Amino acid sequence: MTEQRGGAVDESCVLTEGPWTHRFVGANGSRFHVVEAGTGPMVLFLHGFPEYWWAWHEMLPAVADAGFRAVAVDLRGYGASDKPPRGYDGYTLAADVAGLIRALGERSATVVGTGAGGMIAWTVASFHPTLVRRLVVLGAPHPLRLRAAIFADPRGQFAASTPTLKFQLPRYEHVLTRDDAAEVTAVLRRWGGPAWVDGPEFEAYAQACRTAMRIPQAAFCALEGYRWAFRSVLRLHGYRFVRLMQKPLVTPTLHLHGAADVATLPRTAQGSGRYVTAPYEWRLLDGVGHFPHVEARDLVLGEILRWTKS
Q: What integer pLDDT is reported at residue 165 of this predicted model?
């Protein structure tokens, strides 16, 4: 890992060695860092905020051992992927994933997304249904459910979303990266379930996410997705996005949500099934917060494999 001025780090810090292969793939006009293991039908993993591909590092070998091609990606703006100043709208982020599936030589994939990556996963399945064979969403309501709840539930989802309203402030990325990105640990601690936050694995995971957020431009890019989501409410392309997202999903969808999630409330996520005409399963995970993939890893792994094989 190469230290740079101002506490920044080189993006090579995310190229951790393990039972996987690192690759760079061009898709949708940008270069993406992907990490893959195994062969077979593809399962594509999308991390959330404030994470990077490492969110799935224990899932990749296990899913590969089960007979699948497991691929985790650094989303646009994160980790070792390109960090263009634009392209953090819902349309482009979904097109990134669609382009990646094709660029990796696949006709379709099971897409697994958590948090902000779960919101992208919903959008990919809606906009590019032929590319998503199965969908697994963790800790993320359907985007239209979240949008409605922010307005309709002021003491609930609106209050829960107020920390992300700070992301709208100009140059808030400097707050995110101050003191070696200490705010990243604060976000993980605020949104995580108590058993995980107080457990033995939390500090090492938080440190990995803090380091990746200190890559130049990563913090700015990470916040841009939230900024677009907020600004688009008042803009024409946001209205158009809502219209397109109203089309029912035809992808079989497994929806897992932490009962202790304070970032996106269970009651916000629970109505998401109304947007799915295909088979849909909802499961609430006791004692789990906003990061089910690391808080209840074995349970989530079992559910992903069950859904992917079914």
A: 80
Cut 0.90: pTM above it: yes
The token duo for 16 is 């951790």
Identify the pLDDT of residue 6: 45
CB 28 within 8 A of CB 95: yes
Q: What pLDDT sits at residue 7?
A: 65
Q: Is there a cis peptide before residue 292, judged by omega within 30 degrees of 0?
A: no
Q: Which segments of the chain have a pLDDT < 70?
A: 1-7, 233-234
Question: What tens digit of pLDDT does each residue of 155-194 get?
Answer: 888 888 887 888 888 888 999 999 999 999 999 999 999 9
Q: Which residue, 135, 108, 102, is CA-closest to 119?
A: 135
* Nearest CA among 210, 199, 212, 207 for reference residue 295: 199
Return the structure tokens found at 104.
Answer: 């990796």
Contact 220, 70 (CB under 8 A): no
Q: What is the tens place of the pLDDT at every residue in 262-293?
A: 999 999 999 999 999 999 999 999 999 999 99
CA 186 and chain centroid, separation: 18
